[in-house]
Amino acid sequence: MNMIKRTPSMFVPNTMDKFFDKFFNEGLENGANTFNPRTDIAETEKSFEIEVAVPGFNKKDFNIDLNDGLLTISGERKFEKEKSEKNFYSIQTEYGSFKKSFQLPDNIVSDKIEASYENGILSLVIPKDETKKLVSKITVK
């Protein structure tokens, strides 16, 4: 079997699905240096939970902002060549930057949001304000 040497490039997708995901979600102009990590969003009785799969990052690589109810999570992972100058035959790890934004509902406690990073998963727990209810019953007259 012959191996083909490849150089790292975020623009060359390894599947057509990934190409279309990058095209429609990020556009061509940003596709070369960005990626879209997988994200899970859940709701419990007391909080909203967001998990972002970003293996290989350090805690200091993340920036999390909340501005007028818009939660923005961003980060960057740079490709670093070792001094041994390895010959890569396949690179499937995603490098570059990412940015994800989520519009949060009005019933959150913004100063109690917690973020942690463990085993490649960035987890955010956004507690709900139990005094604010977003559901109300409207009577028809």
Automatic annotation (TrEMBL):
Matching InterPro entries: A-crystallin/Hsp20_dom, HSP20-like_chaperone, Small_HSP
Domain SHSP: 30-141
Pfam families: HSP20 (PF00011)
UniProt feature coiled coil, ranges: none
Highest taxon listed in the record's lineage: Bacteria
Record-linked Gene3D superfamilies: 2.60.40.790
Entry's family note: Belongs to the small heat shock protein (HSP20) family.
Protein name: Heat-shock protein Hsp20
Origin species: Roseivirga spongicola
